[in-house]
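> call design_seq(struct)
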């Protein structure tokens, strides 16, 4: 499943992101921002596509997911 693929590569993806763009953003409490998939995983979005993942703070990410 796509969610499992994302869960398995998330930490490595954030590390590769840091090499390309700088450190993956974090919340004030130090927790990493969540990765938002523009083309969501439930509808066939690629869980590891650079052009499909944007870091968002948890509260904004939850709002996006509810839309």
């Amino acid at each position: 499943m796509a969610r499992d693929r994302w869960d398995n590569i998330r930490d490595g993806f954030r590390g590769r992101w840091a090499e390309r763009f700088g450190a993956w953003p974090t919340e004030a409490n130090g927790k990493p921002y969540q990765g938002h998939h523009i083309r969501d995983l439930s509808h066939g979005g690629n869980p590891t596509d650079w052009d499909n993942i944007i870091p968002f703070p948890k509260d904004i990410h939850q709002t996006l997911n509810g839309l």
